[in-house]
Structure formats: structure tokens, C-alpha cells
Amino acid sequence: MASASELQSTQAELQSVKRALQNGAAYLGLQGEALQKYLLQLNEKENLLLSKQLRGLAVQESFEPLLPAGASSGPTRGYATSGQVTNGAHQPRPAPVGDAKAFNRDNLQDVLVHMAEYEAVPAECAKALKALSSLAYANARVVGQDERVLPALLRAVRLHSREGAVQLTAMRAISNMAYDQEVALTRLAQPDVMGQLLTSMASKSEPKEIGARASEALARIIAAEVKPESEGGGPPPEQPVQLPAGSPGALCGLFLAACSAEAVCKEIVPQLLLQLSSNEVIEAKQAAEGFTRCEQECKNPGDGVGWLALAKILSPMDSVRDLPAALVEAGAIRAAASIMARFIDDSLVQLTGIEAMSSLVGNRWAGLRAFADVGGMERVEEAMRRHGPDALIQTKGVRALGSGVQWPQDIQERARYSHRRAVELTKTAMSQHGGDVELQIAALEALAKYLDKTKCVSDIKEAGGEGLVKMMMTTHHANPKVQQWGRHVLTGIGADPNWAPKTGTLP
């Protein structure tokens, strides 16, 4: 560990040199430009000693106070959403005994050291973050490009998720860093940073400026990619920004962060997009293309479920103007089908996928044609075959199949839709889940549609279909919808019109 006395001596000498420069005096026989060079050498020495001190603290406490950029103590896309320390982060290291030490708020090294040493004390964290915010305001590039800054800031935010002063000063610091477009794109447009900003925006914490600053930071980061000349951010870089290897970019990073976040963070995304659209930062087409593109980054079922859930939120007509149609145009339905095919054995992916595709299609002919062209109905059928015991998948699937028989003939042909397969899958679902009344209602209503549209009496009666309908009507004799649709089906297949379920004790 670096000697404390050596560090103090170096810092004292730095102050002496600064005073000499301010007064135009000499120091150790040096003056002017020569003294300026000596000041730079002392600064480098101080930085080296501080870095050694930080590493020494980490070894002593088995703790990494300032993780290097790119390092992670847990999943790449994990971040705190409920006030708990995540990603395997340690509990805060106890603060030094005695009164809190003073620190040089104009020196980034001092600020980071203070934040590390006093991370257990919210008030001291807030002081350090306030100083960090001021430094970022003065020079966003220097602060934002320092690889220790963001890990330290995010750690403080997660350790003190309920401390308004910590949260506010941290959001101010990120927003100030985001003013530099190169920093915004190379350092801040990462899912972990974007995720924390979404969490802060969605938390509705007091003071309300926390959410406003988080929203401002997100807007600056997105604008740096999609509209670098927009107001509110810094001047565009002279040369195109080279994104780090593996970086998804700002817009894709936002959506990936939302995919990994809790529902409340997903639900805030339309509000953010609406703000960006109102301020003419982003168009619906750009948002839709960015969202669709990030489907390729879904490497596991959890990511897939998150993407599909977000698709459900973004696709209703009242989300963002022109966005639902833009999602269809950008290929979001194909992307949803791709996720379902990729994770065919995951039941939650399949359930959410059926719901997402239904929402993306909506009542739009373009959506229905896209659904047909990408084999959407085949994905539904495969989900039902693979996940027979899952009553929810079967219920959603039965309803989706029932809608297909009402499509125009050309759409059915494009979708390779078969009402015979639909009838077979519907009867299988009925027999597997006899006790599920919602499934039985959906199935009997679907069978009634098939009869009305295709007169497929033999398909329904095949393999004991009539007996199956009567069994379900008997099992659910007290449910009026089961009786209504069951009677409709029995009449359609020419069964005894006087038949009625026995309401006694079933064998």
C-alpha cells in the first residue's frame, strides 16, 4: 500500500507549486514552462500513489471499490431495480473511525477515494457525487472517460437506493457526462447504465428531479446516436465516434436494458419515446428499427421473454404515435417469431410470444399479412405441441387458432393455415385440461367457429369428439358459457338436440 505520508507530502508539494505558478514565483529554481512541466509530473505521481492506495484498500477488505470499465461481478445486464445490491456486489465497507475526512472536490482522484472510503455513509457519498457532478459539468470528457467513474457511481446508487440525495447527485453527474456525445456513446450507452437510468426514471422517488435528470440523461444519450445536432446536448464530435467492440449502440442499449428490467421499467419506455418524439429527437421509424434490431442480442430465454414483453407494451395504438405500424414495417413480428423458434422449449417464451404477436398484429391488415408471411401460426401450433401440460399456452393457442379460420382465404394460404390441424389441437387441449373452465370456453367457442365457417362435422366428431364435448359440458354443467358453446357445437354436428348433461355425482 502506498505510504500515506508520501501521498500527503506529494499533495502538499502540489499546492506549493500551484501557489508559485499563480504568483509568478520560482520553486526549486524552476519557473514558467519548466514549473508547469514539474506540476504535471507531480500530478502523475499523485495519481499513481492514489491508485496504489485504492488497490491496497481492495486487498485489505477483499473488496473492489472501483471496478475497471468492462469488469462485472455478475451478469452483464444485471442492475438494481428494487433497492437491493445486485450482481454479487459486496455490502458497503465500514467507514473509517472518527469524523469524515475533508477532500479536494476539484480533484477527481480525491473524489473517487472519498466515495470509496465512505461508501457506507449516504451523506458522504452524496458529497462525493455532487463534486463528481461539478467536475463532469466542467469537463464531461475527462470525467466520463475515466474507467473508474461509472462503476463507482453505480455502486453508490445501488447501495443507497432509497437516499434521495445520493440518487439525485448521481443522476446529475450522469446527465452532465452525457453532454459530451463521445462519452454518451462510448461509456454511457451500455445496458447497465441505461438500466439504472430507467430504474431511476420509473421509481417516482422524491425529489422528482431524480426522474427528470434520469430522463434528461437518457435523452442526451439517445440523441447522440440518432440526432447528434439536436438541442440539449453538446456539439457533435468532429469525427464519427467508434463504438467499443460489442457495444449495441445507444438505442439498442436502451431497449436491451428495458428487456432485462422489471415491469415498471418496461412500462416507462413509451413515456420516454413520447418525450423524444415530441422534442423531435427520434422518429417512430428509428425507434421501431432499433427495437427490432436488438432482438438479435437476446441470447437466453430471459432476454427473449423481456423483448416479447416489451413488444406487448410498445405495440398498442395508444403507446406512441405511428409506432405500432412502424414496428410491423421494421419486422418486429418476424423478430418475435424468431425468438419463439430460438427458445422453443421455454414455456414462458412461448406464452409471451403468442401474446406479443397478437398485440403486434392488432387490427392492422399489414400486421396480419406479416404474421402470415413469417409463419406465425406455425409457431403457435408448435408451442401447443411442445407444451401440452401448460394450460395457459393451450388457452392462448386455442384462441389464436380460432381467429385464423375467419381470415380471408388468401391470408390463410399465405399462413399455411389448416383448420383441420386447428381442430385436432383444440380437442387435444380440451382432453388434457378438462378441469380448466377458461380453456373449455375458448375451445368450445373455437369449435363453433370452425363449424360455422368450414362445416367440418367429421373433423370434430372424429376420435370421439362428440363424447368429449358432452364430457366437458357435464364437468362444467354450472357454467353458462360452456353450456352455450357446447350446445352450439352439438347442434352443428347433428347430435341429439334433447341431450342434457347429468348433474349428479360424476363417476
TrEMBL record:
Record field: compositional bias (Polar residues): 73-89
- Gene Ontology MF: a single term: RNA-directed DNA polymerase activity
Which SUPFAM superfamilies does its entry note? ARM repeat
Q: Which InterPro entries is this protein grouped with?
A: ARM-like, ARM-type_fold
Which keywords are on file for this protein?
Nucleotidyltransferase, RNA-directed DNA polymerase, Transferase
- Region labeled Disordered — which residues? 70-95
Q: Which domain of life is it from?
A: Eukaryota
Q: What is this protein called?
A: Reverse transcriptase domain-containing protein
Q: Which organism is it from?
A: Cladocopium goreaui
